[in-house]
Amino acid sequence: GDSVTQMEGPVTLSEEACLTINCTYTATGYPSLFWYVQYPGEGLQLLLKATKADDKGSNKGFEATYRKETTSFHLEKGSVQVSDSAVYFCALRGSARQLTFGSGTQLTVLP
Amino acid sequence: EAEVAQSPRYKITEKSQAVAFWCDPISGHATLYWYRQILGQGPELLVQFQDESVVDDSQLPKDRFSAERLKGVDSTLKIQPAELGDSAMYLCASSSGGTDTQYFGPGTRLTVL
Predict the structure, then answer these.
(1) Which residues of chain B are within 8 Å of residue A89 when distances are taken between CB atoms?
(2) pLDDT tens-digit series, residues A40-93
């Protein structure tokens, strides 16, 4: 079945540091890929998505590129802020048309 | 901006009691999802509705959980009786037909004592 493997956390960075959170997936066909963010005590918010190979999703300074050859969708940001502290979830929507989530990566950014 | 509404935000109950959660999706969204998120894990789908019909409830523990969406708009998820292992965040999401993007509500945090 479909599965998503995420870099385990927690990740702690200083403000303005570079961020990479690794995500790889297993799925049949051509899934759509997503990054969701969850702030403390809140539900999930869609951060960015990509629906086909080589697409780059971007939002709020975050980027991720759909790499079919490596089955990856790594999340990157060049300069993180304290307000980026949250849990980040990688997810895919496969042939079953359901979202399958990774286990999440806790990011803490220190001032 | 339209949002998915859920209530209550927090619920504390004793085991063997009944609990119910309510979700109001974004207006016009035909597809509604209920997820369970255990602390430290990603959400897992419990049930998916298309209008008032259940599309997938394969992961719903049907001996104690039930879900309905009678008029194809808002939805209720019920647990009876609650068990200690049911302590989790219950998330509702909705999407319009034919698109991939799911929009999530703030969730209901359930604690079973």
Answers:
(1) 42-43
(2) 878 899 999 999 999 999 999 999 999 999 999 999 999 999 999 999 999 999
Q: What is the distance between the alpha carbons of residues A101 and A35, in angstroms, rounded to a whole number?
A: 9
How far apart, in whole angstroms, are the C-alpha atoms of residue B22 and residue B7?
Answer: 5
One-letter amino acid of A92: L
Nearest CA in chain B to A39: B106
Partner-chain residue, chosen from B42, B102, B106, that has the shortest CB–CB distance to A102: B42
Q: Which of A22, A46, A58, A21 is nearest to A99 (CA)?
A: A46
Dihedral sign for Cα A41, B41, A89, A2, please. Answer: negative
pLDDT of B57: 93
Tell me which chain B residues have a C-beta less than 8 angstroms from the C-beta of A41. 106
Q: Which of B40, B39, B35, B25 minimizes the C-alpha distance to B97?
A: B25
A99 in contact with B at a CB cutoff of 8 Å?
yes
Chain B residues closer than 8 Å to A51 by CB: 100
A103 inside 8 A of chain B by CB: yes
Q: How confident is the model at residue B101 (pLDDT cuts 50, 70, 90)?
A: confident
Q: Are A108 and A85 in contact (CB under 8 A)?
A: yes
